[in-house]
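Report of the visiting student (M.T.), summer placement. My assignment was to run the structure pipeline on a short list of targets and document each run. The first record concerns ABC transporter permease.
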Amino acid sequence: MSTSTVPVSAAGATATKAPPRGLWARLIRRRGAAAAIVILAALVVAAALGPLLVSDPNAFSGAARLKPPSGEHWFGTDNYGRDVFARVVVGARSSLAVGVISGLGATILGTVIAVLASTYRWFDLVVMRVVDGVMSFPVLVLALAMVAILGPGLITVNICLVIVLFPGVTRVVRSTSLVVAELPMMDAARAAGAGRGRILWRYVLPACLTPILVQGAIAFTVAILVESALSFIGAGLPPDVPSWGASLAASRSYLSTAWWMWVFPGAALIGTVLATNVLIDDIRDLLDPRMTER
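After the run finished, the structure tokens were exported:
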């Protein structure tokens, strides 16, 4: 009995090992990660305090149509005289809300299904066929079809994106879970009397932390891009809700005459996606034990 408890203890210490001390300090020392944190922090502040700091983003002004950037309108005005800066700042709330809610929902749902599929073979056979079927459709086409059936709106977009994005999370996390399930420490844990629930919570999930973080970040960025694409074609958020995709759609007829209408919303969208990808790449490298800090 004593010989079986020792490996379990060692395995538990390995599987549940916390991230190395100084992770945040090491992350800040990376220039790309530091810049990404600044960009994302600015976007979060804009999303949280934007409506209190800027004017009404839907306020029309015929006399102020297509004004270039100035001291009065930092990002200029659009074809309806609406302040572009206000629409970009308030639009960050919509885009980030969709990204966080959809990304978090898809990550949680995909992780739960992946872990259960790696444990129960009958569940794996049934659910993974459904996952393969959903993944056979392009993300944007499937999201557009679901929005067309359920109707536009913030809640509808989030539900559609969760359903569209969770299969990718499920497939990647499931592959890691299957590898972890075959490790010797799992046999030692079972021999020590650990139940399936304890094994999943104490050993499998901690070992899948890195792919879960990566897939969550991917789901976050894809959700923002898909929401912007849906809003661009008028199938996403309602017209009275500012979004980066709707701002880009309004600028299609003014690409050369009013460059500020597409430059600033596009920069916000691209900056969010790039900053998230850079940050999660650095976090993944720091959490990966095979990567050494130079």
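The two ends are 43 Å apart (CA to CA). Confidence is low (pLDDT under 50) at residues 1-20. I thank the supervising group for their guidance throughout the placement.
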